[in-house]
Amino acid sequence: MTKEELRIGVFVCDCGSNIAGVVDVDEVQRFAETLPDVVVAVRNKYTCSDPGQQEIQQTIFEQKLNRVVVASCSPASYEPIFRQCIHAAGLNPYLLEMANIREQCSWVTPDRQTATRKALDIVRVAVARAKWLYPQDEEQIAVTDAALVIGGGVAGMQAALDLADAGHPVYLVEKKPSIGGIMAQLDKVYPDIECSI
Amino acid sequence: MMDVGRHPRIELMTNAILEDVAGYVGNFKVRIRKKPRYVDEGECTTCGDCVAACPVVVPDEFQMGLSSRRAIYIPFPQAVPSAYVVSAEDCLGRNPIACGKCIESCEKNCINFDQEDELFEIDIGAIVVATGMDVYDPTALDEYGYTRYLNVVTSLEFERLISTGGALGGHLGRPSDKKRPLRIGYIQCVGSRTQDPARGNPYCSNICCMNSIKGAQYLIDNYPDTDITVFYTDIRAYGKGFEELLMRTRGGGVRYLRGLPGEVQEDPHSKNLWVTVENTTEKRLEKLEFDMLVLAVGAVPAVDTEFVRQMVSLSKSPGGFLKEAHGKLRPVDTSTKGVFIAGAAESPKDVRESVTQASAASSRASILLQKSHFAVEAITAVVYEEPCTLCGQCAKVCPFGAITWEKKQVPQVISAACAGCGTCAAECKFGAIAMRHFSDQAIYAQIDAILEENSQEKIVTFACNWCSYAGADTAGVSRMAYPPHAIIIRTMCSGRVNPEFVWYAFQKGAPVVLVSGCHYVDCHYIDANRSTVRRTDGLWDKLIKMGIRPERLMLEWCSAAEGARWQIIMQEAEKKRQSVTSAELEFTRTELSKVRVPRPRNPKPADENSAAQFHCLRCDHIWDGLFDVMWERICPNCRSNSVHWLRKNIS
């Protein structure tokens, strides 16, 4: 396998004032461009907005990017959205890396200079990781539409009935000669003192 | 019950046991052995002629042995399937020469002694384990006289005594003389909530308080002149309508006496029972006479639960009940994908809770079954054959049983079952396992990038996706400022952190390395973070041996909600970082390159509950305790998890 030429694009997000209010985002953008294999760095007011995402997609086409680093918020919030975004532009969704310069930088580092320095480090680490990302295919596993319920007490019976009513074939296995379990041995059940069977 | 029996999509297999479960989520292969009934289920009209002919009389287990049945019998009138069955153990040999009276009596000729075991091999997508519970056997609690006095019964026996379909045909009577008991005492917590293993289990059995209250109300309704006393330590009437029922019984004259009897004695003539009890609310000793005593016996895991647990590789809770995948978020899922739990197999439950959980489990199973295919996130493990030495250690540490390994074979990863925690990759000392998307190369590149400039100012931090990374996010959302020197490498689980990563970071000049993850109970990969602890212990041991301060390797658990804890961890890490001198960094760099990466310190079975010393590497607090692999080590002084375990030799 010949190693393809890496073409990384870095998208630095202002997040309004959330990041840009503390971090010198221009410096982050300039720094990103100096990193090896980074072909372009773009600054955007809100990268997650429609125009922000369109800019990512357009840059992927124009610059023939094959790795994307979004320097914005936590992957917990926006990784799925940016994965979709680059996927729509023809890139494998696993070629995305996020640099969390909001929750783990601008929001916890009040000093502008210190925060900017930390943001540079975070972006550097994200770009380093991006180089080792590869396209990944999600394996599709076939499912046999049948359920096994082990135990024919009240829980097993209810589970079997619900599954069967939902349309699935069910095998209910009970060790004893009859289903019913302990429930069948009870005379009444609380709190309404009603019949158990 | 009848709905189950006649549902067109339910194949009911009674008298049947599970023999084998193979495969994985969506694709289980199950072998079931159906034992012979010796009666044709479809043909039997339950006329009962065979019962009249059967000469064998044995105790009836459904009636808790309080009445008898024949060797051919129906378990109870409403049984499903509604057909008689021959008990192979009780029958006189199922040989027409030996007996065969039932065969002669059956007009429809549906008794067939030539029936044999039937084996079924079935393809299954999802499994619901509902193996239920058993009741505690109170034989060991001799002071209540269960084995000596006829009129001391368990709560389940009491059910069969009052039931209209019960042993006495609906007339309440006590075992000794079948006379109606006028004074009934209930003794609570029998076999539950005790720290003495000989006297039962430490947990609360959940159902016994309400079951006794129910019995009391039933007696009030049907036998209003009965005197009822309940001996208890705490009454736990916590559910909907429960407190109301408790109050109804109080209003109906039930006496609730706080204190468990110390002694029960039988009057040899009347067979009545004298109970000596310390009334702890009124601080006096009481001696009371009863006609019958009911022991509110606790719940224990069903014997078969353990058998099924091993077959489908599930975890268990300390009491022996099945363990859920996550107490809060995935309470009916299990550690094995595609296997769900319902009812008392998971913990003692009443009927309503069992039904609720069963509906939840079936819903979870249905989510899986209604798809023709499901996608596996591409973060799974891949085994490389060439470097693999066939040791099988990866299969041992996989919390999901997703790696199958036979001796002298290359382990196989079942990607459908793999959750991507990476603890196998961290365990493999031969580099034979790669994690897709969280590769070793990427992690090394991240360490390099962190330490590329001003390495003496950096704290190389590993954070797990679910808890500690999210905890750091929470600190951010809450704007909790902290020192800026920690740069995070996100992994799915702290179990992904290979000791080699830590070693590499120190070699490259990291003053402090922080490994962080979920608290034990929160681990999103069942128990993968226990492996993190084993590996960290090994690393600490070696650092000490080499004269490097072990506290430079920090281990901290932080939940997604603990932003404030993350802030403290960051402040502590920064303190550590500032204490590291450049001479120390240089020494570390040269010394570490001379030695091999330390492997995990694996506790042996003998270490469990052995005397141990614990050393907090944050505050230097040292204390003695017992080693317990399940215990999340935490310093009682400063709440740090950087707690080093030292074996203690008992002299």
Supply the key terms:
heterodimer, A: 197 residues, alpha/beta, Rossmann fold, 2 domains, four-stranded parallel sheet, two-stranded parallel sheet, 8 helices, 20% strand, B: 651 residues, FAD/NAD(P)-binding domain, 5 domains, five-stranded parallel sheet, 16 helices, globular
Could you characterize what this model shows?
- The complex is a heterodimer of chains A (197) and B (651).
- Chain A is an alpha/beta fold and 197 residues long.
- Chain A has 2 domains: 8-130, Rossmann fold; 147-195, no CATH class.
- Chain A has helices spanning 17-20, 25-34, 50-63, 75-88, 102-106, 112-130, 154-165, 181-185, and strands at 8-13, 38-44, 67-72, 96-100, 139-142, 147-150, 170-173, 188-189, 194-195.
- Chain A has a 4-stranded parallel beta sheet, sandwiched between helices. A two-stranded parallel sheet of chain A has the order 6-7.
- In chain A, strand 8 (188-189) and strand 9 (194-195) form a beta hairpin.
- The radius of gyration of chain A is 27 Å and the shape is elongated.
- Chain A starts with 7 loop residues before the first strand and ends with a strand.
- In chain A, 57% of the residues are buried.
- By secondary structure, chain B is of the alpha/beta class.
- Chain B folds into 5 domains: 2-126, no CATH class; 134-300, FAD/NAD(P)-binding domain; 301-369, no CATH class; 381-592, no CATH class; 605-647.
- Chain B contains 16 helices and 32 strands.
- A 5-stranded parallel beta sheet of chain B has the order 11-18-12-13-14. In chain B, strands 27-26-28-29 form a 4-stranded parallel beta sheet, with helices on both faces. A 3-stranded antiparallel beta sheet of chain B has the order 2-3-8, with no helix packed on it.
- In chain B, strand 23 and strand 24 (412-413) form a beta hairpin.
- The longest helix of chain B is centred in the middle third of the chain and has 19 residues, at 351-369.
- In chain B, 49% of the residues are buried.
- At the A-B interface, helix 5, helix 6, strand 5, strand 6 and helix 7 of A face helix 1, strand 1, strand 2, strand 3 and strand 8 of B.
